[in-house]
Amino acid sequence: MDDNTKKQLLDQLNAELGVKKESKDVRFDSSTGTLYGNDFKNYAISHVDTEQFTKGKTYEGGEVLNGRIRVIDDNNRPSNIHIEDYDFEFHLHVRK
User: If you ran DSSP here, which 8-state letter would residue 11 be given?
Assistant: First the structure.
């Protein structure tokens, strides 16, 4: 995807989110294709019971990097979960 297309997509997303173009609250990392925002949170909801995760529990995640989101599991250890993992439901870029 070329830079012009990425810029157009970012502008469109910002318009949908009501973010001004000059706003410093949101930035787009073109190398990873990730949107970073100070007013946004990412969440992962577990659909399985394991030693690390409880079914139905919502875990607050960090930024999405390389298709993975980092969450703190039930054992207070960081865990990287791929956003295509069917054991979780993801809610990305949710306003605080």
Answer: H
